[in-house]
Structures are given as structure tokens and as C-alpha cells.
């Protein structure tokens, strides 16, 4: 839409009006004058002869000046013909032929002159001389056979055609001969015409000749069986460079479709798709063109054949055919996507999944198309080695490729080669991927090649050294019962990552499962002595649980004491008290002592939430292992939860408004806190009395004063 489309046009009449009459007059005035030759009026024979002498003299002069100009001769002969001077006209043509005897146009004008004036024998003589002198000029032969057929001299016309065919003319000449025999043999068997076409395909054994023969048989001879036989012979008898042309299959399939033989047409299309690699042309036409050494024109014809197949399936296909058409369309779309952006790995994933699903749905599983997509995908290596994120999606292409070969095709050797190739591509100096190492090793394990699997994992530890690789290697050796190898791997694991509490724990659990108590205790002792640990609470818990399971209460108690020297976390105190209250501990007095000590410490530090958590655990412990007296003492220590307000501030210290929060008021806090708690209790009591409708306010006042 133009910019001025929204403007209102000015529909007012023009200031100067022009009528239709003015336009016509102006057009007539501007026309150029036409020069008309003067009209010559002849009154008698003498004037007529004088006029002819002048015209002849004019043409003779022109011929004298330009003898090689054929137009002058033809016009001169035309003059004599118009005045019924046929002998003179014939003489002029003969004189012209002496000048230009190899001018096919001149021979044609000469023959047409004789035919116009119904000198058939003269015309036959002229054309016979012409085709003898110029046998390769086809339009002379066409004129010759046309004249003989026009005068209904069929034997002579056939004889002319036979003379012509001896010179091996082009395809149209043979078709003209066959059509002539078809016309003269109308209503009778077309044996002569068929014989002509058979001679034609024998002289020119090409796809073009066979296709013309089949077209003649279908549309002119109306012989469907003959047309089908010819097309079948074209595919079977011709050389591959002739028969393997897209137009042959397209004509054959279109013929069967016109006859309603849809299954035959579908078979032809599918044979063409497989033989001519139509699907590959949709993917990479330049590759097919280079491999088969075919022209761009043939590539375009094959693409047209593919479109014809799609159109056929849309019109006559069943569900399977329609799905195949959709598959072709999706292939084209994915090819466009990966051509526009070769590093669009999501597109490669979807493309490969499409080919896998299609290959799985086929009766004869053929992994060639899937492998080709994967090979094209993994060839698109990320352009940089500085960013690991670019490689993450790319690495999964290799994993999916190897998984497909192993699970779908059952080719573990190929899967192992894929992993090895991927490991050679990854820039391990910058980064690596533990998943690739582990998957490669597992493939060799499934192949029962343990030395190669160990070699892969050992190389991975040297180049990558990630925690996951250690775990998988240890799990492999543990499943094989190689305990010494596991210990060696754990030692290397902990040398590389001494702060990893999970590694220390697993190592200790391994020794514990083997009954090596001293080894387990030594490992845990070494672990807790490390200066830096990522999850020390897990490690200490494992160590303490180990001593408890072994029945070493004194060791566990010493561990608790050591742990409390490092941290005063409330959960540690609770666990310590629960340990003392258990069967292996020293009993509830010791547990109460631990709780009292923890409570005092938390009180001194002002940690109210932790005190509440400790009192809840203490009450549960007393309920389970103590008596009601001590339960009451613990409950007397429980705080009251009260709602308070405080000013909320932003990062810069500006006031944002008041907010409510919950606080705890402990009974054993300072006197001010107890006084405040007493006042709050009295206020709550007074409020309840007001709600009950009490009129006596002196009691409330006295309570407030107390």
C-alpha cells in the first residue's frame, strides 16, 4: 500500500475541459500521410505491352545489379505469374536456380508457383530435382509429401516418404510418416504406421524415440497395451544413460495414472526414487550431480519427477503414501534449516529422529539414510574451543549416533569407533565430557573387552579427572570384585579431591562392608582431619554412626566432644543428647546434662529459634526415656510466642513501613522480660473479661495494680 492511499482524491472537474471530438481531431491531425502508388489505367493491348516492358526492364536492371538477391527473382516471377505468363515465370525461376542452385527457399517458391497454378507434374518435377540436390533440407520433403497427399496419390506419397527415410531424417520426419499412414489407414489396422514407428525406434534407439512411439500408440493408435509394452521396453532394452532419465519414469507413471492403474504408477515412482536417488537430490543435489556426472537439466527434471510423485500421492495415496509424502516434505524443511545454519544442532537432532522413525517403520530396515544424517551432523564441529556451552549439544549428537548403532543396528564395533572418533575431536586441554568417556568404556564392557574399558577410564582420569569418572570406574571394578583396584582408585580419587566428603564416606563404607574395621576407622579419622571439607557434617555423622554401630560408645562420645569444639550447632547437641539417652550411652542424667549445657550456651548467645528447637527435642526425649517430672520441667522452659512490629528498611537504610513478626518470650529470661510477660497476661485476661460482658472493672484494676 502506498503512502498516499489514505488521502482523499480530488474529484472536482478540471478547469479546462477536453471533449472526445477534440481528442479525435488531434489524433487525426497528427497522423502521417500515407503515400499511395499511382493507379495505372491501361486502355488497350499496346499500353499493356508497354507497361509490361517497363516492369520487366525494371526487374532486369535490378537482377543485373544484384544477381544473388533471391527476392528480386521471386518478385519478377510473381509479376509474370500475375499476368498469366507462366512460361516466362518458369524461365525466371530456372535462371535464378542457375545463380543459386542450393537455395532451398528458391526451390520451395518455384514448387509453390507450380502448385498454385495446378501444374502438378511440373511441381513434382521441381520437388524431385530439389530433394535430389538438397536431400537434407527437410521442408522440401515436407512440401513434396504434402503435395502428393493433397492430390490423393497415396503410393507416390509413400514412395517419397521411403526415399526420405533412407536419408535418416530427424524424429519429426518419422512421426510425419507415421501420421500419414495413420490418416490413410483410418478405420483399418494401423500395421503400416506401427511398422514405421518400429523402424524409427530401431534407427534411433533413444529414450526420446521410445517416448514418441508410446505417445503415438496411446493417443493416435489408441493401443494401450502397445504403449505400455513400449514404455517397458524403454526401461529394459536401452542403455542405462538413456533409460535412467527422469522424463522416462515421469511419462510412464503419468501413462499408468491416466489409465487408472494407480498401483502400477506408484511402483514406477518408487522405483524411480530408489534408482535415481530422488530423495538424495532433495537433500544434496550437488553431491548427486558430482557422483553420477549428470547435468543440471537432469537434476531439475528429477526434482520435477519428485514433485509429480508428491502430487500423485496426495491425489491417490493411502495413509502410508501420505505419510511418505509428509516425510519428504519434512526432509526438505530440515535440509533447508541445516543448510542455512549448519550449527543448528537441534535441527540435526530432529532430522536424525525423523530418519530413525522412518527407518523403523520400513519392512526392510535400512540404516543408510540415518547414518548419512548423523555423519553430516557430526561433521559440523563447533567453530570455537573456548566455550564449552557450544559443544554440549554437539556432543549429544555423537552419543545419539553411537546409541542408535548399538541398540537399533546391534553394531557395537561401530558404536565403539564412533566414541573413539568423538574423543579424538574433543579439545581435552580446554575442557572434556565425562559422559563420553563413561559411555565409551561401557561399550567395551558390553563387548567383554575389559582391558580396553580400563584403558579408556584410565586415560579419562589422566585427561579429565572428574568425580563422575572415578565413581563409574570404581563401580565397574567393584562389580568385578577387584577390591585392590577399588582401593587404588579411591586413593587417587582422594588425592585429586581431598575435600570431597562423599568420596571419604564411600571409601569407608567399602572397608566397612569388607569387615575392615581398623581400615574404616583410619580412613574416617584421616577424613575428619582434613583442613577443608565440602560437607563436614555428613562425614562426622558417618564417623559417629560407624562407632555407634560398632558398639564403641566411648569413641562416639569423644567424637561428639571433638565435633562440639568445632561447632555449636543445635542439631549436634540434640544428637549428642539422644546418643547419651540411648542404650549405648550413659543414660538420661548425662543426656540432661548435655541438654542443660546446650540450653545455657544458646541462651547466652541469644539464639531463640535454636532454643525452641532444643526444648522440643528435649521434651520428646524426656517423654520417651524420662519421667513426667522432668517433662514438666522442660515444658516450663517453653516460651510464649508473641506478635510484634518492626520498621522494615531497604538496602540504603530508608524506612519502608512497619511489618509484623513473631518473637519468643522465655520464662527464664531477665526480670524485665518476666514483668512484660506478666503485663501481657493480665491484659489478655482483662480483654477476655470485657468480651464476656463483665461490668465490674475494679477486679481488673486491682489485677493490673498487682
Automatic annotation (TrEMBL):
<dbReference type="InterPro" id="IPR019734">
    <property type="entry name" value="TPR_rpt"/>
</dbReference>
<feature type="repeat" description="TPR">
    <location>
        <begin position="70"/>
        <end position="103"/>
    </location>
</feature>
<comment type="function">
    <text>Involved in pre-mRNA splicing and cell cycle progression. Required for the spliceosome assembly and initiation of the DNA replication.</text>
</comment>
<keyword id="KW-0802">TPR repeat</keyword>
<feature type="domain" description="Pre-mRNA-splicing factor Syf1-like N-terminal HAT-repeats">
    <location>
        <begin position="58"/>
        <end position="205"/>
    </location>
</feature>
<dbReference type="Pfam" id="PF23231">
    <property type="entry name" value="HAT_Syf1_CNRKL1_C"/>
</dbReference>
<dbReference type="InterPro" id="IPR055433">
    <property type="entry name" value="HAT_Syf1-like_N"/>
</dbReference>
<comment type="similarity">
    <text>Belongs to the crooked-neck family.</text>
</comment>
<dbReference type="Pfam" id="PF23240">
    <property type="entry name" value="HAT_PRP39_N"/>
</dbReference>
<feature type="domain" description="Pre-mRNA-splicing factor Syf1/CRNKL1-like C-terminal HAT-repeats">
    <location>
        <begin position="469"/>
        <end position="559"/>
    </location>
</feature>
<feature type="compositionally biased region" description="Acidic residues">
    <location>
        <begin position="694"/>
        <end position="706"/>
    </location>
</feature>
<dbReference type="InterPro" id="IPR003107">
    <property type="entry name" value="HAT"/>
</dbReference>
<dbReference type="GO" id="GO:0071014">
    <property type="term" value="C:post-mRNA release spliceosomal complex"/>
</dbReference>
<dbReference type="InterPro" id="IPR055430">
    <property type="entry name" value="HAT_Syf1_CNRKL1_C"/>
</dbReference>
<keyword id="KW-0508">mRNA splicing</keyword>
<dbReference type="InterPro" id="IPR045075">
    <property type="entry name" value="Syf1-like"/>
</dbReference>
<dbReference type="GO" id="GO:0000245">
    <property type="term" value="P:spliceosomal complex assembly"/>
</dbReference>
<keyword id="KW-0507">mRNA processing</keyword>
<dbReference type="GO" id="GO:0071011">
    <property type="term" value="C:precatalytic spliceosome"/>
</dbReference>
<dbReference type="Pfam" id="PF23233">
    <property type="entry name" value="HAT_Syf1_CNRKL1_N"/>
</dbReference>
<keyword id="KW-0677">Repeat</keyword>
<feature type="region of interest" description="Disordered">
    <location>
        <begin position="685"/>
        <end position="706"/>
    </location>
</feature>
<keyword id="KW-0539">Nucleus</keyword>
<protein>
    <submittedName>
        <fullName>HAT Half-A-TPR repeat containing protein</fullName>
    </submittedName>
</protein>
<dbReference type="GO" id="GO:0071007">
    <property type="term" value="C:U2-type catalytic step 2 spliceosome"/>
</dbReference>
<dbReference type="GO" id="GO:0000974">
    <property type="term" value="C:Prp19 complex"/>
</dbReference>
Amino acid at each position: 500500500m502506498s503512502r498516499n492511499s489514505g488521502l482523499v482524491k480530488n474529484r472536482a472537474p478540471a478547469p479546462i475541459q477536453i471533449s472526445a471530438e477534440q481528442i479525435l481531431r488531434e489524433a487525426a491531425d497528427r497522423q502521417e500521410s500515407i503515400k499511395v502508388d499511382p493507379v495505372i489505367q491501361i486502355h488497350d493491348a499496346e499500353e499493356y505491352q508497354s507497361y509490361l516492358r517497363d516492369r520487366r526492364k525494371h526487374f532486369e536492371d535490378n537482377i543485373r545489379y544484384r544477381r544473388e538477391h533471391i527476392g528480386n527473382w521471386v518478385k519478377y516471377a510473381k509479376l509474370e505469374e500475375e499476368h498469366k505468363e507462366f512460361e516466362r515465370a518458369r524461365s525466371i525461376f530456372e535462371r535464378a536456380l542457375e545463380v543459386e542452385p542450393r537455395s532451398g527457399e528458391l526451390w520451395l517458391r518455384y514448387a509453390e508457383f507450380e502448385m498454385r497454378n495446378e501444374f502438378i507434374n511440373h511441381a513434382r518435377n521441381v520437388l524431385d530435382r530439389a530433394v535430389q540436390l538438397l536431400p537434407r533440407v527437410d521442408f522440401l520433403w515436407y512440401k513434396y509429401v504434402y503435395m502428393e497427399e493433397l492430390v490423393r496419390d497415396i503410393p507416390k506419397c509413400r514412395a517419397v516418404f521411403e526415399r526420405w527415410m533412407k536419408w535418416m531424417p530427424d524424429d519429426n520426419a518419422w512421426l510425419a510418416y507415421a501420421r500419414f499412414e495413420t490418416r490413410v489407414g483410418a478405420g483399418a489396422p494401423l500395421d503400416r504406421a506401427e511398422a514405421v514407428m518400429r523402424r524409427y525406434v530401431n534407427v534411433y534407439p533413444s529414450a526420446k524415440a521410445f517416448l514418441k512411439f508410446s505417445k503415438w500408440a496411446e493417443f493416435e493408435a489408441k493401443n494401450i497395451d502397445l504403449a505400455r509394452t513400449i514404455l517397458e521396453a524403454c526401461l529394459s532394452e536401452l542403455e542405462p544413460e538413456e533409460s535412467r532419465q527422469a522424463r522416462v519414469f515421469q511419462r510412464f507413471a503419468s501413462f499408468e495414472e491416466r489409465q487408472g492403474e494407480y498401483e502400477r504408477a506408484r511402483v514406477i515412482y518408487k522405483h524411480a526414487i530408489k534408482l535415481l536417488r530422488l530423495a538424495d537430490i532433495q537433500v544434496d543435489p550437488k553431491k548427486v550431480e558430482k557422483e553420477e556426472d549428470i547435468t543440471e537439466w537432469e537434476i531439475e527434471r528429477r526434482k520435477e519427477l519428485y514433485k509429480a510423485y508428491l502430487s500423485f500421492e496426495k491425489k491417490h495415496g493411502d495413509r502410508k503414501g501420505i505419510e511418505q509424502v509428509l516425510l519428504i516434505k519434512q526432509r526438505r524443511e530440515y535440509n533447508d534449516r541445516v543448510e542455512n545454519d549448519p550449527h543448528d544442532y537441534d535441527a540435526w537432532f530432529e532430522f536424525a529422529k525423523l530418519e530413525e522413525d522412518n527407518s523403523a517403520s520400513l519392512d526392510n530396515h535400512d540404516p543408510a539414510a540415518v547414518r548419512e544424517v548423523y555423519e553430516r551432523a557430526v561433521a559440523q564441529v563447533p567453530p570455537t574451543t573456548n566455550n564449552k556451552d557450544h559443544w554440549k549439544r554437539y556432543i549429544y549428537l555423537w552419543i545419539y549416533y553411537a546409541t542408535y548403532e548399538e541398540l537399533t543396528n546391534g553394531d557395537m564395533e561401530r558404536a565403539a569407533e564412533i566414541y573413539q572418533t568423538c574423543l579424538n575431536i574433543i579439545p581435552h586441554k580446554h575442557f572434556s565430557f565425562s559422559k563420553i568417556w563413561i559411555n565409551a568404556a561401557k561399550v567395551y564392557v558390553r563387548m567383554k573387552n575389559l582391558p580396553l574399558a580400563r584403558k579408556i577410564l584410565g586415560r579419562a582420569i589422566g585427561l579429565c579427572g572428574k568425580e563422575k569418572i572415578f565413581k563409574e570406574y570404581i563401580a565397574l571394578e567393584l562389580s568385578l570384585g577387584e577390591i585392590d583396584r577399588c582401593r587404588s582408585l579411591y586413593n587417587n580419587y582422594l588425592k585429586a579431591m581431598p575435600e570431597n566428603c562423599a568420596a571419604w564416606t564411600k571409601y569407608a563404607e567399602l572397608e566397612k562392608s569388607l569387615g575392615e574395621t581398623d581400615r574404616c576407622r583410619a580412613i574416617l579419622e584421616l577424613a575428619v582431619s582434613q583442613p577443608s571439607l565440602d560437607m563436614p557434617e555428613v562425614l562426622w555423622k558417618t564417623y559417629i554412626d560407624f562407632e555407634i554401630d560398632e558398639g564403641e560408645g566411648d569413641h562416639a562420645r569423644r567424637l561428639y566432644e571433638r565435633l562440639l569444639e568445632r561447632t555449636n550447632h543445635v542439631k549436634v547437641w540434640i544428637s549428642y543428647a539422644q546418643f547419651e539417652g540411648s542404650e549405648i550411652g550413659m543414660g538420661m542424667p548425662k543426656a540432661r546434662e548435655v541438654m542443660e549445657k546446650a540450653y545455657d550456651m544458646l541462651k547466652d548467645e541469644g539464639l531463640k529459634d535454636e532454643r525452641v528447637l532444643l526444648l522440643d527435642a528435649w521434651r520428646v526425649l524426656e517423654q520417651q526415656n524420662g519421667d513426667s517430672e522432668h517433662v514438666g520441667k522442660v515444658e516450663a522452659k517453653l516460651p510464649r510466642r508473641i506478635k510484634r512490629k518492626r520498621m522494615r528498611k531497604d538496602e540504603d537504610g530508608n524506612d519502608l513501613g512497619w511489618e509484623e513478626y513473631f518473637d519468643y518470650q522465655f520464662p527464664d529470661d531477665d526480670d524485665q522480660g518476666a514483668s512484660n510477660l506478666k503485663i501481657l497476661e493480665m491484659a489478655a485476661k482483662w480483654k477476655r473479661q470485657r468480651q464476656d460482658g463483665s461490668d465490674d472493672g475494679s477486679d481488673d484494676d486491682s489485677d493490673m495494680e498487682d
